[in-house]
Specification:
With 254 residues, the chain is of the alpha/beta class. The protein has two domains: 177 residues, 3-Layer(aba) Sandwich (Rossmann fold); 66 residues, Single Sheet (N-terminal domain of TfIIb). 25% of the residues lie in helices and 36% in strands. The chain has seven helices and eleven strands. The strands form two sheets. Strands 3-2-1-4-5-11-10 form a seven-stranded mixed β-sheet, sandwiched between helices. The chain has a four-stranded antiparallel β-sheet with strand order 6-7-8-9, with helices on one face. It is globular and about 60 Å long. It binds S-adenosylmethionine. The site of S-adenosylmethionine has 18 residues, from loops.
């Protein structure tokens, strides 16, 4: 399923603007205003904007010009300095090396083939300082997640608008291919005003799920040691984590 970026860029903040749990975690990684950071798959800047508030050396990269345009508007409004790059995270070429390279909120899972993941990791390796750090966030493929009926739209959340009469209902329907480890999802986004539905939009996208040990081997085989896996941005030991955040370093002999 190909993502319609025209629709996605206009809906993204409406649907995911309330996701904020991960932001302090990323901001706390920045050690000073000269910390050189690269965000791959930056989208509309949900994470980039708070990072740009603490370092002037952020490069935000995304495949979609529409997503980058939204980010640029926010940066201008906030008077923030950052470099925006429209590029593919598998093939980018920048003449800078970074202290920190991050792929927040499951962006790495947009890469659907092992070969794509490997190309991305090679590009990261090339752009990372020797003592640099990489952070990759992915969702944990839980049993509960697979236990879904692919004909049913499940409610994800209802978000209240600034005008208390408005709200946005988000539902999703997913089907799984266990061999290719692909999840095809249709998101349904329904806007309402005074209990009347004013707009319904559908958005299709595909992600690749990855098991934790598989991810560790993928990183190891492509030049990175997993130093830590953080659960749900709290480093808790809870089993039912939804997010697994891999903190990676360059493997010395690679
Ligand atoms: C789930 S969004 C995450 C956006 C943002 N980082 C956040 O945390 O809200 C994933 C982003 O990855 C981008 N993306 C997908 N495939 C990409 C690729 N091959 N190269 C660069 N960006 C890509 C999409 O355009 C989208 O903006």
């Amino acid at each position: 399923m190909t993502l319609n970026y025209e629709v996605w860029a206009t809906l993204y903040d409406k649907v995911y603007g309330d996701v904020v749990d991960d932001i302090p975690y990323y901001v706390n990684q920045i050690t000073g205003p000269d910390h050189a950071v690269l965000e791959l798959g930056c989208g509309t800047g949900r994470v980039s904007i708070p990072i740009a508030e603490v370092t002037s050396k952020l490069t935000a990269l995304d495949l979609s010009g529409q997503m980058i345009n939204v980010l640029k508007q926010k940066a201008v409004l906030g008077g923030l300095i950052l470099d925006c790059v429209i590029a593919d995270m598998r093939y980018f070429e920048l003449d800078v090396k970074f202290d920190l390279i991050i792929i927040p909120f499951r962006g790495f899972q947009s890469l659907l083939l092992k070969g794509d993941q490997e190309k991305c990791l090679a590009a990261i390796n090339k752009h990372l300082k020797e003592d640099g750090k990489v952070i990759v966030d992915m969702f944990f493929p839980s049993l509960e997640m697979f236990d879904q009926d692919n004909r049913v739209f499940y409610e994800v959340k209802r978000i209240s608008g600034e005008d208390p009469r408005t709200s946005t209902l988000v539902k999703h329907r997913s089907s799984f291919d266990m061999h290719s480890q692909l999840i095809e999802t249709t998101l349904l986004v329904e806007s309402s005003k005074a209990d009347l539905v004013t707009e319904t939009r559908y958005l299709d996208f595909t992600l690749r799920y990855i098991h934790p040990k598989e991810a560790e081997y993928l990183f190891l085989n492509n030049g990175f040691i997993t130093r830590n896996i953080v659960n749900n941005f709290t480093n808790s030991i809870e089993n039912q984590s939804s997010e697994m955040i891999f903190e990676l370093e360059k493997k010395c002999d690679y």
